# Entry
Amino acid sequence: MKKKKPVFFLVLFLLIISTAVFAQTNKLSSDKNKGDPDRLLRIENPVKEATNAYNVILCGESGVLVFFESIEVTEEKLTKWYFIFYDNQLKVKWSLEIPLIKTISYKDFYLRQKQLYLYFQKKGGRKSDENNFQLIEIQVESGENNIISGIVPEKARFIKFLIHENLAYIGLNERKNKASISIIDLISLEIKTISIGNNNSCFLENINIDTFNNTLDVITHTFTSKRNLDLIFNEYTLNGDLINSLTTNNDQKNTLYASQLIPAGKNKKFLIGTYTNKVPGKNELENSNISVAGFYFVEILNNKQQEIKFYNILDFKNLNTSLKGKEIHKLRKKAKNKKDGKDISIDYRLLVHDVIYLDEKFIIP
# Structure
């Protein structure tokens, strides 16, 4: 007698907190709460055993995409992925079954109006005739899609994915402490890979598009010695040609980390992030395992660095909402008695989200 395989249910709970969160259900357990905008709702999808975790992407008023990898394999030895799109009433709008390269994993997405881009990258090495990344373009209203496959540096660690006009940018940290950016032309499908840094150990931290100046801005860390880690800002054309390079300078010799470049006008940018008074090791830098002392802020005008300002976490008035009073007192006393005058790095890792630039003010979520 053939043993039946168990079927598990993928359950997605969505809480309607306002009309800005687009989710309702096909079937409610009780219709008496149908008019309640704060009710807890759910959808269920049958998922075959041994699948990986599902992924959820909110697509504004259009709805929500749920997708996951199955254990099913095609005759071409590709793994089937399932994509289901729900409208803002949680009714299925369309569903897709897309075979992708085996051992490939989802990394990031980019939503541009009604067009969604999903980036996947293969784990480990590859065969000589094998692609190791796939980029899926999906029209969220119809499910119409296109798959771009290609090759990026082997065994590279994914950092960031961007789309601008007809170009896709993939930031990577390669083996042997090298960094690169692969630029994909979404029309011609040509791929250009630019290497960052010279022969020094280089770690890519962030990339973004400056729409004021039509440039690709890149932030990297470079070890010039075991005791010195430079933060370097490179400015490229959108096609990947280097325009300018600036090594940040600070008299306090703090290590700048978790940095973001905020375009603020023609030839004007702001560099914002966290800092520590220690020089982290390569493993700490690679794994983002760094204790910080506070935030820093610097203006870059016409590719020249202006005065850099540091804000110690221990100086924040509302610090007691995050730390206990005794702990704050102990840390402040330790900082006061520190002979070299440097800020102490507390044993905290700050999760820095994208900085919001609003009304000439910066909001760090």
About this structure: The mean pLDDT is 78. Residues 325-336 form the longest helix (12 residues).
